[in-house]
Specification:
The chain is of the alpha+beta class. It is 31% helix and 20% strand. The protein has helices spanning 43-51, 58-72, 79-100, 113-138, 145-172, 181-194, 215-226, 235-248, 294-306, 322-331, 354-363, 367-370, 384-393, 426-431, and strands at residues 12-17, 23-28, 253-255, 264-266, 275-276, 289-292, 343-344, 348-353, 436-444, 447-452, 465-470, 477-487, 491-500, 504-511, 521-526, 537-541, 550-555, 558-570, 574-586. The strands form 4 sheets. A 6-stranded antiparallel barrel has the order 8-9-10-13-12-11. It is globular and about 80 Å long. The two termini are 25 Å apart.
């Protein structure tokens, strides 16, 4: 499905022999050109060309860089000169790819034509840049001995760093990593290790921290990212994690596969990321390496336990939420056994996406109708309930009878602030909360694997709350998206985990120590399950609710005060808290008794349509 992410039409397999007679299968183009059509093939010529790029026109800049890199990689050029030229071009490619990311990140998972081409263009730019550095690696024998260590270290580090760009982008778009990327990463690191260049710090102004990164650090960044289960993460979380790994990579270690702390195994002859050692059976590990993440995981756990009192060496950005820290500590920690086995199955499920749609389906009504007007009198003085309260309080006043002034004169438009007027169409409300009917790929007692045969909604992301309804079942069950992936030739699939078979829709309002309380927001109450010692919990939006918040939980007819005591789960979309009731603020109202209740690999680089539209 996502094979378009790797577009290396000019790349040919080139077997490079190193001094130890081991083969490196690097995909690089043949050098057949004697000159460039767009500039003089020197540092001065390329510098002048780069200086004249129209930076304000990102589309034209991208076009010239794309075509220039293709030509440069086919130019016959000495290794040292090629390396110097690539170092001039690299910052411009970084700038363009960063600017282009807004066109495909934060969009629907299945990209439309233009965002897809922009993503493909970004992949190609960084792939062609990586090809240039790999050509220098392939020219190793021509490098002068006095410059060998410095130039090979730089070329190997830049090759790995350039390949990390397409790797991260594939993760962010939930696509398969292109064939050959992992294999090249492994082989480049192995070569650096044999040359004893892997620990040398390399200045890198394009890193997030602008600090030097060794070849081993650059390699570990890719390994940690690949083993962090990125298909269970949100796009924004992946970006934060990737930049943070530049610092965290110093804490993880490459070790021998027999090391007791080697949680992951890296086979340099396999085109795949690091794998859990516990899952490997009957495989010769003589040429493999291990990845030790124990110190990193322990530091993350210490930070989560100690909070502001943490005094460890690991630097954790304030923007990195607890849910992301929990996720990576579990991914890089001991492998948890699957609770249930998957069973292939057919049939379909009805799915609603997000808190708003799920609350609507479970409650059977829009949120404006769900929130009782009596509870909202203070925040909406124009509601029917507020007007009735005023009439009751002033009924005996001199102007409270039939002689009072008629403020609702003819021709004055009446505004229904509660949204409960007859002018609102139930079908129109339902259209705002669509139901998606999806085929089931397989299932287990804990969840389902579903496939999207058509366009994927933009709001679908890992960690999103779902409502699901099985065939011939009237009730809606609560679930969450655990992972998303695009399958070559098989569309988009997602794995969902069941959260609770039943829940109660409610509204929650944050009580502040000073000022007015917040507005009511959608929430869901999950009942206590004594059999597994699980207390009653409430699911709320991600913000503004926090541990120790005081809230009002409102259901039609009555409200209760509660204290949020512990956060059990958190994703980018919602939080799940344990809570304790403080007091009942309002008894069940009599009027509620009378109310009715209802609850790919591309065959050509077709970017011509992009240049002017970017």
């Amino acid at each position: 499905m996502a094979a378009w992410l790797w577009s290396e039409l000019l790349a040919l397999d080139m077997t490079v022999m190193d001094s130890t007679s081991q083969k490196l299968n690097l995909r690089i183009p043949q050098q057949t050109l004697s000159s460039l059509s767009f500039a003089e093939g020197t540092e001065k010529g390329i510098s002048q060309w780069l200086a004249n790029l129209p930076k304000a026109n990102i589309g034209e800049t991208a076009r010239q860089l794309y075509q220039g890199l293709i030509e440069l990689n086919q130019l016959e050029l000495a290794a040292d000169r090629r390396l110097a030229i690539l170092e001039l071009i690299r910052p411009e490619v970084h700038y363009v790819c960063t600017a282009l990311s807004k066109y495909y990140l934060g969009q629907s998972i299945v990209l439309e034509d233009k965002p897809r081409k922009v993503a493909n263009l970004s992949q190609s730019l960084q792939n062609h840049l990586a090809n240039g550095y790999k050509i220098v690696v392939a020219q190793e024998r021509s490098i002068k001995s006095r410059d060998h260590a410095s130039q090979m270290t730089l070329a190997l580090q830049r090759s790995i760093r350039s390949l990390c760009g397409p790797l991260l982008r594939a993760f962010q778009l939930y696509c398969p990593v292109a064939d050959g990327v992992w294999l090249e990463l492994h082989q480049l690191y192995q070569l650096a290790r044999r040359r004893k260049l892997h620990l040398t710090a390399v200045p890198d102004k394009e890193s997030a921290s602008t600090k030097p990164l060794s070849i081993e650090q650059s390699y570990i960044i890719a390994l940690l990212m690949g083993s962090a289960r990125p298909n269970q993460m949100r796009q924004s979380a992946m970006g934060k994690l990737f930049s943070t790994l530049e610092d965290w990579s110093r804490t993880a270690r490459i070790v021998q596969p027999t090391d007791a702390k080697a949680l992951f195994i890296i086979n340099p002859d396999m085109d795949c990321p690091a794998r859990y050692k516990s899952l490997i059976r009957d495989e010769n590990l003589d040429n493999s390496l291990g990845l030790d993440t124990s110190e990193l995981v322990n530091s993350i756990k210490d930070y989560m336990l100690q909070g502001s009192d943490y005094r460890g060496d690991l630097r954790i950005p304030d923007s990195m939420g607890v849910e992301l820290l929990q996720h990576v500590s579990q991914s890089w920690g001991d492998l948890a056994e699957r609770t249930f086995n998957r069973i292939p199955s057919g049939g379909q499920l009805k799915v609603s996406i997000g808190m708003s749609a799920t609350h609507y389906r479970i409650a059977g009504k829009a949120f404006t109708r769900f929130v009782d007007a009596e509870e909202d009198m203070e925040t909406n003085p124009f509601s029917d309930a507020a007007q009735r309260e005023k009439q009751t309080g002033w009924a005996t006043a001199f102007d409270g009878g039939s002689q009072s002034v008629d403020w609702h004169g003819a021709g004055v438009e009446q505004i229904d602030y509660n949204g409960t007027g007859s002018g609102i169409d139930e079908d129109e409300e339902a259209e705002n909360y669509p139901i998606h009917t999806l085929p089931i790929v397989n299932h287990s007692p804990g969840g389902f694997c579903l496939t999207w045969p058509k366009e994927v909604p933009k709001q679908l992301q890992a960690g999103e709350l779902l409502g699901i309804q099985e065939t011939n079942d009237k009730d809606w069950t609560l679930a969450v998206v655990r992972w998303i992936r695009q399958v070559r030739g098989g569309g988009t699939q997602m794995g969902i985990e069941l959260v609770a078979p039943h829940c109660t829709p409610c509204a929650a309002k944050l009580l502040r120590k000073t000022g007015e309380p917040s507005q009511f927001l959608r929430a869901l109450l999950l009942p206590e399950v004594p059999a597994i010692d699980r207390p009653a919990t409430i699911i709320t939006p991600r913000m503004p609710f926090q541990i120790n918040s005081k809230i009002i939980i409102h259901r039609p007819g009555y409200s209760q005060r509660a204290h949020l005591t512990e956060r059990m789960t958190a994703t980018g979309s919602y939080s799940q808290f344990e809570y304790q009731l403080i007091e009942k603020t309002k008894d069940e109202m009599s009027q509620s008794e009378t109310k009715a209740s209802s609850l790919t690999v591309s065959t050509e680089d077709d970017f011509d349509s992009l240049w002017k539209s970017l």
